[in-house]
Amino acid sequence: MTAKTPSPAPVTAAALVADLAALGIQLEADGERLRFRPCEKVTPDLAAKLRTHKAALLAMLAPNPPSPPTPALAEGWFRVGAAAPQREHFAYDPETKTHPGWWDYLYELHNRGLAVVKGKVVKEM
Known about the structure:
Oligomer: single chain
Low-confidence stretches: none
Number of strands: 4
Largest sheet: 2 strands, antiparallel
Distance between the termini: 87 Å
Shape: rod-shaped
Radius of gyration: 24 Å
């Protein structure tokens, strides 16, 4: 009886990007094309893996689409005297551990010469 050799673990797109980075190869999406440099470091085996995982790599490397406007930025939320939303009304981003929409709301208030005081929208002095 001959012993079976274990089959290699399947390569994922994320693992491939990590491998390329470890080799000093930069990879980027350019529309529907993958661009990498320096070209001379990409072996035929790596090129085959890039072709195999092209769709997943393009999805990973594509710029993030603009997020839809936060519903809290409706005009009614900027009326003087209106109750200001709580931070929890905005989507939480676990990566940054913040509520980015909240900061967008406060920034927009500031641009309009408004502020939040004791939970109410007021004119800045």
